[in-house]
Design a protein that fits this description.
Elements lengths: L2 H10 L12 H10 L5 E2 L1 H10 L10 H9 L7 H14 L5 E6 L6 E8 L2 E5 L11 E2 L4 E5 L2 E8 L4 E8 L2 E9 L5 H11 L13 E6 L4 E6 L2 E6 L2 E6 L3 H11 L7 H12 L4
Antiparallel strand pairs: 1-10, 2-3, 2-9, 3-4, 4-5, 6-7, 7-8, 8-9, 10-11, 11-12, 12-13
Helix pairs in contact: 1-4, 3-8
């Protein structure tokens, strides 16, 4: 990408001061945290599938187009949008990131980045719907509770994978298994295409889903189809969302995407899934 792309990207995440600085854990943590300015959402993928028709491959990611979408507050993305963008930025900043795949619903159904620093190896995972606000150490167990939700990460030496557990009703369950080897661009592209397959293989082609994590407020907001959920330390509340105007209001005001064409997005979702608004 040209120099202006990196400047725009750093300006958008309010980290222009990192240009020309040496890689560090503190800076990497700031980069991960500031990516929470963009929502985690499947709506962009639904629109990509809709534009391409309901069969065959969808268009590969265009990093210039993706940055422009973020600048307009017209979308966010899931793991492949965030991973591709962050890899380009980190490489420019001198981190030499390695993209890796992870298993949630199927092997390779998630992706993140491995970053080697003097302190050790870290996972930079910004394309997810969890309140992860820092790089995750691979060799050292890491645990936190945010928005009333509990997470822990630990290295499974037998599998040679980093495992993400979540606490549900007082019980820990494993949800994500991160590979600790890099993957090729071809494998990354294949994983992206599988998320757009029909019949759906993941939530991406099923749900009108947006997650916004607000670290300063210890708040997580999720829109999943017709449910608008607020997670706080005190518990969660749920409201129903129906009708075009209500979706427009929620997407713009609650979820921070005033530039999104909500009518087109809902048309994509209802056409692909048969859902009603």
């Amino acid at each position: 990408m040209d120099a202006s792309w990196y400047r725009r990207y750093l300006r958008m995440i309010d980290l222009e001061d990192l240009e020309g600085t040496a890689p560090s854990l503190d800076s990497l943590n700031r980069i991960v945290r500031n990516h929470r300015a963009m929502p985690f959402e499947s709506i962009s993928s639904l629109q990509r599938r809709f534009r391409a028709g309901l069969t065959g491959p969808v268009a590969s990611l265009d990093l210039e187009q993706q940055l422009a979408t973020w600048e307009r507050r017209a979308g966010g993305g899931v793991c492949y949008e965030f991973g591709a963008m962050l890899r380009e930025l980190l490489d420019h900043l001198g981190y030499q990131p390695v993209i890796n795949l992870a298993q949630i619903s199927f092997p390779g159904s998630h992706s993140a980045l491995i970053v080697q620093l003097p302190e050790g190896r870290y996972i930079a995972d910004v394309g997810n719907g969890q309140p992860i606000y820092e790089a995750i150490p691979i060799e050292t167990p890491f645990e936190f509770t945010r928005g009333g939700l509990g997470y822990r990460f630990w290295l499974d030496h037998g599998l040679d994978k980093l495992v993400q557990d979540r606490n549900e009703h007082g019980e820990w369950k494993s949800y994500v298994w991160y590979d600790l080897e890099g993957t090729s661009d071809a494998e990354f592209e294949a994983s992206m295409q599988r998320h757009h397959a029909l019949p759906p293989m993941t939530f991406v082609m099923q749900n009108f889903r947006v997650v916004v994590c607000r670290p300063d407020d210890d708040l997580i907001i999720q829109l999943r189809d017709h449910d608008l959920i607020h997670y706080r330390a005190s518990g969660k509340t749920t409201q129903e969302v129906y009708g075009l105007e209500r979706y427009r209001e929620v997407v713009a005001d609650e979820l921070g995407m005033p530039g999104m064409d909500v009518e087109y997005a809902l048309n994509a979702w209802t056409t692909i899934t048969g859902s009603k608004i």
